[in-house]
Amino acid sequence: KTAVYFSADFHPLKGRTDLGAYKIYVWFDRVLDQFNLLHCDAVWYNNPRQIQGRDKEGVRKHPRLKERSLPLPISRHDIVDDSAIVPVAQPILCYLGQLSQWLGMQVLIEAMPRLLSSHPGIHLRFIGGSGAEVEELRHLADRLGVADSVTFYGFITDQQKIERLLRECSIGVALYRNHPYAPIYYGDAAKIKKYFAAGLAVVTTGAPFVSEKILEYRAGCVTGETVDEFCAAMGELLKSPEHLLQCRKNALALSRSYVDSVIMSDVWRDFDNGATASPVSRRP
């Protein structure tokens, strides 16, 4: 039998002064991580940056392990048909997920007055969050006079409804803070994979590793964290309906490289051949 450890994230410890009480959780996570590395035969990282992070912290000391980078897969059934990608009169932006301080929701709303001045019919959707965090963003939209162009759906448990709302949009946004301590830096961006599968062009920062694939496939834009940078990226993405449409088609093509059967067949073949860590990269 072969025991495989799937490492979903990595939390740096060296030199950090920002953890506070959270340091106990990170320390405990590190203990479990080292136990798994010691007692397993192979390790799958969902982000190759984990290998770099472990090397920097001196916690990658198990040369006998077979290693492989394994991004989070998506189901082929979640990917829309090519015929669903059609030109739109006015773009709808969508943010999906929790409303965390690491994710730049305020920037999206603060950018809306400028985006509306150049694209009067543009709309922004938030799918996720509840309570005070939603009310705070709603108040910001009211104060900036863009409340009619921003819709808050809150937390939705019905996955089919989420998929329907996503497929009505044309651009998915995720403005992660671009910082090596940001949770996404060593993890994988599940929300962005959902955007790809729905045929949405993606605007994100360089924080998630998948941003490199967005540039490679020309499936959207990689931007900074400020309103100016986001508006500049949106201006490039919306420079013509044809350009936005092509980015959406590219995103859909990229989604197929993350299909579970494709990823797993590559991984098992590499393990059979004794391969060590390398990122999964396969164009459809």
Describe the structure.
The chain is an alpha/beta fold and 284 residues long. The protein is built from ten helices and nine strands. The strands form two sheets. Strands 6-5-4-7-8-9 form a six-stranded parallel β-sheet, with helices on both faces. The model is unreliable at 277-284 (pLDDT under 50).
Name some characteristics of this structure:
single chain, about 280 residues, alpha/beta, six-stranded parallel sheet, three-stranded parallel sheet, globular, disordered C terminus
List the helices and strands and how they pair.
Elements: E1 4-7, H1 22-39, E2 42-45, H2 49-57, E3 66-69, E4 92-96, H3 105-118, E5 123-127, H4 131-143, E6 150-154, H5 159-167, E7 171-174, H6 190-197, E8 201-204, H7 211-217, E9 220-222, H8 227-237, H9 241-255, H10 260-272
Parallel strand pairs: 1-2, 2-3, 4-5, 4-7, 5-6, 7-8, 8-9
Helix pairs in contact: 3-8, 6-9
In short:
With 284 residues, this protein is an alpha/beta fold. The chain is 41% helix and 13% strand.
Shape: globular
- State which percent range the strand residues make up: 5-15%
Q: What would you call the structural class?
A: alpha/beta
Q: Strand count, sense and closure of the main sheet? A: 6 strands, parallel
| Oligomeric composition of the shown chains | single chain
User: What ranges have pLDDT less than 50 throughout 5 or more consecutive residues?
Assistant: 277-284
Distance between the termini: 33 Å
| SS elements, strand count | 9
| Helix content, binned percent | 40-55%
**Strands of the largest sheet, in order across it?**
6-5-4-7-8-9
Average pLDDT for all residues:
88
Q: Would you list the SSEs in sequence order as H and E?
A: EHEHEEHEHEHEHEHEHHH
Radius of gyration: 20 Å
Query: Total number of helical segments?
Result: 10
